[in-house]
């Protein structure tokens, strides 16, 4: 089932205001008046109203009332998606959908998280991490049987790689309404790639959204056998997960190539399980349409921007976690997204292998991706309607507003407060919360320090924050 139910914007605001799904917060404890640290370089800046505090709960309530009044006009104007109130909605031109295939079961209910500015995707709440595993030094990445020559045909490549592509079935526990007993039922399915093997286990790389919220994961193998998989680790922001099965089920391991060497126009094939396991290991052909595409996504861990490969190879529901393969028979991407809109075809996206493998290795080593954490909840200044923005922040129009500071967090220790407006980090201009998180997570390691520039009551100040691990 490709399409999922949309979440109400007011519910999203309520969750954000409570810090429930904000990845920059380690828990939900918010202190509106943290201890002030030593700030330097105070300078006059744009006029900002003093001693005013935004009541984010009241604002969210006003948004909900506005939306209720607009409800009658939505059906007559489906293309218009404008959120009234404190946070302005983003009009998306396309619907970006994750491409796991969901089986319709009468006892199963489905839900989604907005993707790319408010569109629906198949995402669930954050998955509990499974047991971690550190691979042995004898593990290998390459297939021993493929010669890797340019003379190989598509059929040769497909024949060689097909045994490394598996079906990944998300099993969730549902209660039988007749006898009140719970049982595991198939909630959805996707694809995965056997990418590593050691003396005990074979490791499968797939998308986080394929296995998210699973009570049990079942693997369908090339041989027709099925086996249970253990979740080694998963990361919602990068949409990657690693599973492990007994090594006896893996006769071959996929070879991964260098995605940085790709060029637009290079021929590729995609192998996966579109529309479920009945069409397992379907092969489609296309080209690399573009590189380094940036796709804004809303995940169970917060907003993020994925850097992806664009391809016109047919990618359908169920291909999530499958392989995008170059003409040398090397996996150069993990298929993850597609644009789904009437009249739009051939817009699929894959996570580059050079991004996927380091994340996979960290998941194998730690069970999770360790990121720098400062303990703040943020709103985009640009998303605040003009009336509130001018009354609270004067002439400031860009930056990110601190809506909450966790008690005892690195941000609290550095003296940051609610209603501070961050405009730069380490000298780099910051316009929105996604940019801030991208910089923090990609450039700052836990324990490193960063310098933030912010406005408080119209005065520009600086503070140095020593980060912690999330």
UniProtKB/TrEMBL annotation:
One Pfam family recorded for the sequence: PDZ_2
Keyword set, alphabetical order: Hydrolase, Membrane, Protease, Serine protease, Transmembrane, Transmembrane helix
Compositionally biased spans, kind Basic and acidic residues: 1-17
Domain PDZ: residue ranges: 358-434
Ranges annotated as spanning the membrane: 90-113
Gene3D superfamilies found in the cross-reference section: 2.30.42.10, Trypsin-like serine proteases
Signal peptide extent: none
Compositionally biased region (Polar residues): 36-50
Name this protein carries in UniProt: Trypsin-like peptidase domain-containing protein
Organism: Perspicuibacillus lycopersici
